[in-house]
């Protein structure tokens, strides 16, 4: 370990802490679980994908940490309570909780039935409220404060047509997080959000209708890359590791006075607010100009 690494580890103070990652078995959640374990954190995870979770548990144990796991649908209130009961028995207290679970699908609001609306609200807001309530009890049991990190989305901060209920539920999670940061601040319990945009995850891929997902599959990586470079100021989607790094920061003592914020880990898309880097010399503008328009609408050129 280099001096720089030792200095940062000491300042972060993560080694020996205990975390729960809700949805920590695969994808983004697995990346977070493994980053915490590598930082010296004991981890409890739940997920609906048993196979992926088994792989993640084995890798986390490979870092020498204690790992608890449970096959649980976090959107089921009874199942989520049972997971927290297991964590209480196994760990006794927590320092860090990360609520990763979420998801949606692209559709017009008027085509959603009430069951689909209720599911979108529960998996993007409802379970978070329950998880935070149980998490606070376990953080209080540790007597040294702690960090709760809720995953929201860029869609909570813009008008997301065809993802309206999802966007509304994530906005509720965002403001709930801010409110709880104020309510629990004097106890040393910090709450923050991470708002990703496009990330390489199964959840994002499954949000698209099958026909759109299939059409993406027919595009070359070079073409997809050029599209992302137009949309994302940094030029490419943030990898899962970037989201895990944000969790490590917010969970650590490096962020000891950071509470109630939303950290946008999106490569700059929130900052761009609709400015795209159009090709053919148009550059960063909200709407294509004379360089690009003839290629989009050749019949009107």
Automatic annotation (TrEMBL):
The keyword Acetylation is assigned to this record: no
MF terms (GO), sorted A to Z: oxidoreductase activity
Entries under InterPro entries matching the protein: NAD(P)-bd_dom_sf, SDR_fam
Keywords assigned by UniProt, alphabetized: Oxidoreductase
Pfam family membership, one: adh_short_C2
Family: Belongs to the short-chain dehydrogenases/reductases (SDR) family.
Name the record gives this protein: NAD(P)-dependent dehydrogenase (Short-subunit alcohol dehydrogenase family)
Organism of provenance: Novosphingobium taihuense
């Amino acid at each position: 370990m280099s001096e720089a690494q030792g200095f940062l580890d000491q300042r972060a103070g993560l080694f020996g802490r205990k975390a729960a990652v809700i949805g920590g078995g695969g994808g983004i959640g697995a990346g977070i679980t493994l980053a915490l374990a590598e930082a010296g954190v004991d981890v409890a995870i739940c997920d609906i994908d048993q196979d992926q979770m088994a792989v993640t548990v084995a890798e986390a144990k490979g870092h020498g940490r204690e790992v608890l796991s449970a096959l649980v649908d976090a959107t089921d209130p009874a199942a989520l309570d049972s997971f927290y009961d297991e964590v209480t028995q196994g760990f006794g207290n927590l320092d860090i909780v990360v609520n990763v679970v979420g998801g949606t699908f692209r559709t017009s609001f008027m085509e959603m039935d009430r069951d689909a609306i209720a599911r979108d609200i529960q998996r993007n807001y409802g379970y978070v409220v329950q998880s935070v309530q149980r998490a606070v009890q376990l953080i209080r049991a540790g007597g040294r404060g702690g960090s709760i990190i809720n995953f929201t989305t860029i869609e909570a901060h813009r008008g997301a047509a065809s993802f309206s209920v999802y966007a509304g539920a994530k906005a509720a999670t965002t403001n709930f997080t801010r409110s709880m940061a104020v309510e629990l601040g004097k106890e040393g319990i910090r709450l923050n959000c991470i708002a990703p945009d496009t990330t390489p995850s199964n959840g994002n891929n499954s949000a698209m209708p099958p026909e759109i997902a299939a059409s993406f599959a027919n595009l070359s990586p070079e073409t997809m890359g050029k599209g992302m470079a137009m949309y994302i100021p940094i030029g490419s989607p943030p990898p899962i590791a970037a989201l895990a790094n944000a969790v490590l920061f917010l969970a650590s003592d490096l962020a000891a006075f950071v509470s109630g914020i939303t950290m946008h880990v999106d490569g700059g898309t929130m900052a761009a607010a609709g400015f795209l880097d159009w090709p053919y010399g148009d550059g960063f503008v909200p709407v294509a100009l004379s360089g690009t328009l003839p290629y989009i609408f050749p019949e009107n050129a």
